[in-house]
Structures are given as structure tokens and as C-alpha cells.
Amino acid sequence: MPETLPATGLLSASWLLIALPLLGAAVLLLGGRRTDRWGHLLATGLVAASFVLGVLSVVQLAGLAEESVTVDLFTFIDSGSLDVRAGLLVDPLSAVFLLLITGVGTLIHVYSIGYMAHDPGRRRFFAYLNLFVAAMLVLVLGNSYVALYVGWEGVGLASYLLIAFWYTRPSAATAAKKAFIMNRVGDVGLAIAIFVMFAQLGTTSYEDVFGSVGLLAGGTVTAIGLLLLLGACGKSGQFPLQAWLPDAMEGPTPVSALIHAATMVTAGVYLIARSAPVYDATETARTVVLVIGAVTILIGAVIGCAHDDIKKVLAYSTVSQIGYMFLAVGLGPVGYAAGIAHLVTHGFFKAGLFLGAGSVMHGMGDQVDMRRFGGLATKMKTTFVTFGLGYLALIGFPFLSGYWTKDAIIEAAFDKGGTSGWLLGGVAVLGAGLTAFYMTRLMFMTFFGTPRWEDGVHPHESPPVMTVPMIVLAVGSVAGGFLLTQTFPLVEWLEPVFGPEAEREHVIAPLLVSVLVTAVVAVGVIAAWLLVGRREVPVTAPARVSPVVTAARRNLYADALNESVFMRPGMWLTRALVWVDNRGVDGAVNGLAAGLGGSSSRLGRAQTGFVRSYALGMLGGAVIVTAALLAVAS
Amino acid sequence: MTDFPWLIVMIALPLVGGAVVAALPAGRDPLARGLTLGVSLAVLVLAAGATIAFDTGGDRFQLTTSTPWIESFGVDFALGVDGIALVMLLLIGVLVPVVVVASWDDTSAGRRSMRGYFAWLLVLEAMMVGVFAATDVFLFYVFFEAMLVPMYFIIGSFGGPRRQYAAVKFFLYSLLGGLVMLASVIGLYVVSNSQLGEGTFAFDALRQLEIDTDVQKLLFLGFFLAFAIKAPLFPFHTWLPDSGAEAPIGGGVLLVGVLDKVGTFGFLRYCLPLFPDAARDFAPWILTLAVIGIIYAALLAMGQSDLKRLVTYTSIAHFGFIALGIFAFSTEGGTGAVLYMVNHGISTGLLFLAIGMLIARGGTREISAYGGVAKRAPVLAGVLLIAGLSSLALPGTNSFVSEFLVLIGSFPTRPAFTVVATVGIVLAALYVLLLVQRTMHGPERGLVAEEPGRFHDLDRRELVVAAPLIALVIGLGVYPQPLLDLIDPAVSATMSDIGSDPAGTTPAITEAGAGD
Description:
A: globular, B: mainly alpha, two-stranded antiparallel ribbon, NADH-quinone oxidoreductase subunit M (chain B), ubiquinone binding (chain B)
């Protein structure tokens, strides 16, 4: 960690970054229907203002000798030896997130003006979106693990509110609850990690924790690393806590784009990268991060191949892509910056893809079943082109964003060396092929082939307020990777946080990796053409399929497992306990109650009975204790 | 200002007010509730004044007064507050007027007069102030028992269909605890008599006694049982769901919000300083009960079909956290526990009131009778959600600070118990979100579908009830330090009584953490 200095100038007003969207949320929620007409504009304007302020702040930050400043705000919790101050840390890492969150956030606010134009709950929607941006900024700008935790659960709330936005649908209400609960499971890990830090080091601030990690016993560091990882898995939809993320697609599509693709779900990656000094000191925890990343890459990609719901496919794609980021940060110093770079480009193209999917749904009467799409390329040209560019960026088409940032991760995986390097690299390459397959399948089913629209559906292009953000994100999807790896390398920008780029031996020449990955991607694309593109897509999913497809359609039985291991036994336990509490625990004392007072139906009589027994009891109690005391004393 | 008899006035004013309200002629109900509101607001002002007069850096007990009362037994009418008692007085000051406004129109159902209800509320307020402000153990005992009477009548005369059963059960349980405590109080007197030459009940004198460990254990158990029933701690909890469910909403708020805190307050004020050796010996057992309670009550809350019983079970789970913070013997944990008492009063009070507003519309406590209320009454749904989020200790709400302090403060001394308790935060999320989903989300079901007209959104009076509590939920969630500044010194003093490091938990690695 570099020296951090108190902020000056504009940076000292960094709290405004959070306060602006928070103000928006407050005005919209408290203002009620009075704000219906202009609330969405206020919300969008405030996030945009936060973005502009963020850009100016980062410019100032870049000009400083020490690119890391703190803003001390107020005493949050001070008791005994615990002293948690509310404070912000603006450094190259938080700056990247700051720009991503407010930048993509602004675009999605703009898009939502169109997308939610006819929804009666529009004001509430924008209030929650603003709340989300504020909480997410607390998460990435906080200067201690406690501040991170506050933002962490804050975004969980915003996510809950937005998934349940259409709460009259039981599926939306259930999905929201599921998301919150599975996140909370992860939060237990994060919370206990913070407790361990306090117990061992007496502090929770990044600066002090990282400064004294070296003093901790190896087992303790590993424990902290694994506990933080549990939190990261919950928030980022990583194995074994991935099952909530696809269900979260019940929320309006801009929510899926902003929260469940571009920003919130990548918070786990942020947590691990931010805790680099911890993970640098524990090989074991890093290995577990690697394994989880690799497993999740495959889980997400395999399931993504089988779903027909366009948003579910994109959701599993997100699960899988975040797996790549976990893989990257699990590699340690060689991977942190690569993981963050992929996180940023993924933020562009996946947000763009979701907005495109929303545009398709908008034109198709909220249909999400790709079997009911087809032939939309000519009907929705802007959507098709921007979505297509996002698609190419995601599968790693040469020189588009994914090509630069995903290949960098795959390279680093191979460079780890040894069997594990080959294994991880192999999984990453295989994942790239599967990604190409499911995304090409999605493209064919949605934009090509014969129309399979339901009656009365007249696809049309979305209004400019929606397409302009899509175009901006498409530009990012095309150029972002090149800019962030070649022109303004993120690796260098992040050097103050992660240290100078490590020299490393290449196991396979980078060029060869590129060729290999591109070839595998091509195989995936061709396979999709052979299996989907050149055939007629049936409007109902075929029932007779291989066990693999069945398993993938059922999300590899993750939900079935959760249900049979946790939910059903939990329900039985709860029922049993209710019975026990009413009969057993209460029954014993109830007998006494019945004996003394229950038989008398009138209160008056009961009362006189009590006064007598009260007096008797008083006497009896006093006699017993006095006797006991005398016995002890003598 | 410090010479003003704050505490005596805070007891006398509602007592006199209660008598006046009770003496009002029939048919003067509007005057009765106006008078009650006025008196309760005056007590709030007094509590605020007492807080201003209180010097956080000064003596442990302040605003003290003492008059000999039963001289032959050395009983004094002695009052005084430390930071712990003071924040409880503030809680009482806030909750009673809110309850009065919430009960404004509760004349329906042809029950006894409102005058009676409001009179008992004021008497209860006086007793509650007394129990927290007493610095003489006998006087504490008197208030502890006297407090039962108004609550007994509030439940038994103004409660739900099974109110008599519930009131009797409440009385019996409390009585049992109280009697055993009385024995211990007398025991303390006997010990003080033999050690000091003359018997006393003064807390400060009793604190100096050197009591033999075996005697400590006996006396400790007497106090402990009374407080464990009052708190209530698993497995002494079964009276609370009945009482809480049958009590009228306003009475329920004060029962769960304040009365139960006398139990946890008693642990901290009496059990720890008076019997430190016994407290240390029994701590693992008590912590076990606390942690079982957290998990057990949370599971039970999920299984309830009655709205009010559900809330009482969530409270039992929360009391487990408070007991954990107290018996972990760390300043952070203890401070967190005291803050938890205040915050729980606010957030469960709000939850109880929100549930009450729902029941006022539907007329039944059955959860299954409701569904999809949010569409009809979005503000009510919002209030219930905020109360629920506070109950599950979401950061940004008041309860996060206290639950976090309890857990982070207990972890260094009791890691295993703390880890199990932390799992409770998942269960808390479950019972809260299940409640929200069942009643508020989904399509309109049950009564809401049958008689949608009854489920209008909150009216002005109901907003006045909810607003101050919501403001406190968020205000204390963002800036809790003023309360912590009051609580922390008193908890430190308690921890030094028991021989724990009053400065707080020392990190395992002391040379580290020297960040500044």
C-alpha cells in the first residue's frame, strides 16, 4: 500500500459522489407522487452529476504524486478499543470502479427513462436505482472493511428492492428474497472475517490491516482469506452460491444490466483485489479462489448453453465471466490488474447486451423466450448492430474488448506453470469455446432465421433514449479492451495498488495463446451454426434430450440441492420446533399456570388467589435463602 | 440545572397524571388521551433535559437523590442514573408518546374505558422510569414488582381474546422470578449486615462487598432467574409470545420494547458487578442459552402463523444477542448490548406498530389472511419493510450498529459462541423477508382480495406514529456516536467491576494496529 494522504481540492468533496444519488433516492421516496413527473429526470441528472464529479476527481488524482487520498468524515462507531471512522479512500482501484459505476450507471438511468416510461412505478424504480448507485459507491470508496460491509449490504438491499420491483408477481418476490438470503450467507463470512481482523489486529481500516498482515499467523491469514471469499462468492454469484443470480432476472432489464452484470455482482472481485495484501500472504486461499473461479466458468457456460430465456443465458454468461475474473485475481499479483481490466470491459459489453435484450423484449411484448424470437436483425437494426458488437466483444473476436482482456487472463493462467497452470488454462480455453457456442446460439435464435413471433407481436426499434446508451456501450465494447490494455494500460494505472507488473516466464507464447483461443472460439461458433443456425428452431423446447442438457436446463441441480439440503429440512425443523415450543417447553409451565389460575374464570378471583400465594411465596423464598446462607456461613 | 430533581419528577409526573386521568368522569375520553399525551411528552422533555444535564465525563451515577425510606432496614429512596439507565429513560420518553398516539382510536370493541387504559399507561411509565433509575436494590425490587401491576391490567383488561390467560401467565412467570430475586435481595442484605456491621441496600455499598464464591453463586442465581424470565432468555421465554400476542398493540410495544429490557439491564447492573465470580463461572452456560435462543427463536419466528407471535419470537432471538454481548465481558460487546436494548425498543416498536396497523385493517392476526397488501397500501408496506430491515440489522439502520458491536466485541473473548450467533443474521433475514413476502407481496389474496376497501394506506395519525421511529432508525444507524458516548463509560465501569479490561479488548497482536 502506498502512503495515503488527506484529500485536497475537489477530492476532499468526494462524499458528494455518494450524497448526490442518495439525495435523489430520498427526494423521490419521501416526495411521493408530487415527484412523479420529474423524479426520473432528477435521478438521472444526479447520477450524471456524480459521474462528472467523478471524472474531475480522477483527473485530479492522476495528477498527484501519491495517487491515493483519504477523506475522513466522522466517527461512526467508537467504543472500547474499536474505533471505526467513516472515511473514503480514493485510489486508482476505487477510481476505476467510481467511473464504471457512475458512467454505466448514468447510461442505464438514461435508458430506463425510455424503458420504464409507461410503468406506474417509475418514480420508485429511479429512487431504488439512485439508492443502488449510492450504496455501491460506499462499497468501493469506503476506507475500511466496515464501510465496505455497509455498502455491501446496502447494494444487497437495492438489489432486493429492484428484483422485487414487480412484487405482485410471486416469482419476483421469491427471487428477491432468495437473492438477499444467499447474499447473507456470504455476508456471514465477510462479517466473521472482520471480527477476526479486529480480534487479531484491533482495527478494520484497510491501511492498518494491510500494514500488519505480516504479523499474523499463516493460518489466520488463510482463514481471513477464505471468509472474505465466502462473502465474495455470495455477492458475485460464484459457486456454490450462484443460484440466486439467474433468478434475479425477474427484475426489470436495466437492473439486470447495471446491478446483475456490470457493477454489483463484480463486487466480489473488488473485495479480493482490494484485499490483495491478504491474499498475497496466503497461497491456500488463493488456490481456493482459483478453483472456484475455474469451476464457475464451466458451470455458468454449460448452463448458458441450455436455456431458452434470453436473460437467463446472459445471466449465466455473467456467472461464467465473473469466474474468469475470480480466476485472474486468484492468480495473485500477475492477475489482479487483468481481472479488473476484464471486469471493466465486461461491464461495457454485458451491460450493452442486457440493454439490447431489454430493447428486444420492449419490441416483442416482454417476451424472453428465444424460441419466440427469430429474424429480428432487419426489424431492429440498431439493437442488432449494438448487440452484435457486444456479442463479438464477449466471445473474444480479435481486437474487440473481450479479446484483449479475456486472453490476458488465459495467458496468465497458463503462465502459472505446472499441472495446475495447464489445467486452469485449459478450463479457461474450454470456457471461451462454450461462451462462443451459447452466445452464437443466442444470436441465431434471436436475430436470424425465420420469425417465430407470437400472434399480435409487432417488433419495432426502441426510441433513441434507449438506443443511444446502447450505442455508447457498443463503442466501449469495441474499443474498451484495446484502450485499457494498449493505449492507457490499466496495469500501469493500478500499479500503486498492486505493485509493479511482475516479470514472468511465458509457458506458451502469448501469440500462440491468442491463436489457440481464437481457434476454439471459431469451433464454438461453427458448432452453434451446425446445431442451431442452419436448422429450424422449434417453438417448444424438445423434450427428449441428453442427460447433460437436462441437467444444464435444471441449472446443474443447484436449486434441487438447495431445496433438499436446506429448505425442506429447515421447514421440517421449524415445524417440529413450533410443536415442541407449544407443547413441551410451554406445557411444563402451563400446567403450573392452569393449576394456580387457569381454573378460575374470573379475573377478580384469580387476583385474590395471587396475592395470597405471592405473600406465601415471599415468605417461603426468604426462609429458604436465609437458611441456605446460614448453612453456608456456618 | 443539575439540582433539578429530574428523576423524581419523571416518576411523579406520570404517576399523578395517571391518577388524574383515572379520576376523570366517564365520557371524557378525548380529554384523557390529550392529557396522557401531554404528560408523556413532558416526560420526554424531562428525559432530554436530564441527558443534557448529564456529564459524560463525570461520575458514574449522576442526578442522584437519596432519602431514607425504611430506616430500620437501611432502605433508601435513592435514585440516580448512569449512561446505561439514561439511554433507557430516553427510550421510554420516546416510546410512550408514540404508543399514546398509536392507541388514539382504540376505543372500539366495547372494552373498558380508554381512561383506564391511558391511566395504566402513565402508571406503567412511572414504574419503568423508577426501575431504571433506582440505585437502591430494595427500591429496584419494589419497582420491578410494581411494574407488573399496570402491565397485568393492560393485558388482562384491554388485550385480545385470550387476554386473561395471557395476563395470568405473564403475572405468574414474573412473580416466580420476582420472588426468587427477593430472596437474593434479602440475602445481600444479610451479607452486607455481617460485613459492614449494618445492613444496606445501596448499590454502591453492595458493589464493594467481598462475597464468598459459593454465596455469590446462590445470590446470582436468584437475580439471574428473575432477569432471565423478564428478558426473556431461552428456555424461560414461553410467556412472552402469549403476552405479546394478546396485549393491545401499545401495551405490546412497551412490554417487548422496554419491560423486557429490565431483564438484560439487570444482568448488567446487578448480576455482573455484585457477583463477578459467579458471573464468570456461569457465563458459558448463559452464553449457551443465549446462542440457542438466537437460533431457536429465529426458527420459531419463521414457523408462526400469527403476526404478533412472530414479532415476539424475533424479539427472543434479539435478546439472545443482547445476552451474548453482556456475558462476553468486553466493553465493546457490553456497549453494543446496551445500544441493542435501545435500538430493539425502537425497531421492534416500529415493527409491532406496523403489524398493528395491518391488523387494524384486517381484523385478524393470521398471516394467511393477508397477501399483496403493498399494492393497496404502499406506505404501510414501506414502514413494515423499514422496521423489518432494522430488525435484520441492515447497515444504515440503527440495529446494525448494536448487533455489529455485540458480535465484534464478543468475538475476541468468545469466538465459538459469536460464530454461531452470526449465523443468526441469515435466519433474521429469512423471517423478516418471509413476513414481507407473505403479507405484502404477490397478488392480492385472502381478506385483501375479498375486502380491498379496508386496506387503505396510512392516515395522518399513523404517519405521525411511524415517522419519529423511522427517523431514529436511520438517524441512529448513521450517527450512533452520541448514544455510544453515554453508554461506553458506564459499561467500562461495569467491566472493571468484573475484572475485565475496561479499556476494551486488547488485540491479540499488540504491536500491530499502530496505524497512527
